[in-house]
Amino acid sequence: MLDLAKAHRSIRSFTSQDIDDSLLNDLLLAGLRSSSSGNMQTWSVIVTRDEARKRWLYEAHREQSMILEAPLVLTFCADVFRMREWLRVNDSKQSFDDLLGFLTGTVDAVIAAQTISLAAESVGLGICYLGTTWWAADEIIEFLQLPKGVFPVTSIVIGHPAEDPLLRDRLPLEVMVHQEQYRRLSDEELRQAHAQREIKAWERYNAIESTRKKLAKAGITRVSDYYTSEFKYPKALHQRISKMLIETLQEQRLWL
């Protein structure tokens, strides 16, 4: 398991081979056994196999081709609706329709997603998370017919890998791990910590011809500038999606 976890790579190209129901069920059962706050299991997952519906998700997730290639798309949701329905049928006091309920369900959902991801990789499958689930949360809610109290928080594609990419760069462990209390890095420590990542990430982005042309045209010469540029994660995008998320959480009765 240690070797498996340390060898993780996101897979973005898949073969056409399907995943049978028995294997999928095993993966989902592994997710079901994940840690859960209070054993409330305030999460749900929607399995998408249908090609037409995957096409819709492809559009919603900013046209990432791996969605069309992979046989499965799993959308993980924070789900306090089921919990509240259980309370209702038992005539118990209602709760959980608030930010804390949403955050608890979000953590449960992501833990389950990661368990399923590791289980999938353990049998030779590949996975990739879709961060764009947040970006299209309002559309996904409507498409998947999520009731009030259910909110999509992450998605993964699963399939048989059609590529064998190298391990991606990561920051040094000592930058990520703090002993006993948080330690702020000096400017020089920050530069040193990111030095190798900047080199490797810059090489990776420039190896993509379309990205290289965009960088050159915009005069971008550093990875940090690329990350906040209009081509990656511009501030305007963050502001727009943040506003949408707050409004959608309110609409889903998860932000009072």
Task: Please write out the topology.
Layout (H helix, E strand, L loop, with lengths): L1 H5 L14 H12 L10 E6 L2 H10 L5 H4 L2 E8 L1 H9 L9 H24 L3 E5 L1 H4 L1 H7 L6 E10 L13 H4 L10 H20 L2 H10 L4 H5 L7 H17 L5
Antiparallel strand pairs: 1-2, 2-4, 3-4
Helix pairs in contact: 2-6
Secondary-structure element pattern, one letter each: HHEHHEHHEHHEHHHHH
Q: What CATH architecture of the largest domain do you see?
A: 3-Layer(aba) Sandwich
Could you tell me the CATH topology label of the largest domain: NADH Oxidase
* Coarse structural class: alpha+beta
Count of distinct structural domains = 2
Q: How is the biggest beta sheet arranged? A: 4 strands, antiparallel
* CATH-defined superfamily of the largest domain: NADH Oxidase
User: Distance between the terminal alpha carbons, to the nearest Å?
Assistant: 41 Å
Strand order of the largest sheet: 1-2-4-3
CATH class of the largest domain: Alpha Beta
Give average pLDDT, whole number.
Answer: 96
* Principal-axis shape: globular
Helical content stands at: 40-55%
How many helices in DSSP terms? 13
- Which band does the percent of strand residues land in? 5-15%
CA radius of gyration: 20 Å
Task: Provide keyphrases for this structure.
256 residues, alpha+beta, globular, NADH Oxidase, 51% helix
Question: How would you characterize the overall build of this protein?
Answer:
The chain folds into two domains: 2-165, NADH Oxidase, CATH 3.40.109; 173-237, no CATH class. It has 13 helices and four strands. It has helices spanning 2-6, 21-32, 51-60, 66-69, 81-89, 99-122, 132-135, 137-143, 173-176, 187-206, 209-218, 223-227, 235-251; strands at 43-48, 72-79, 126-130, 150-159.
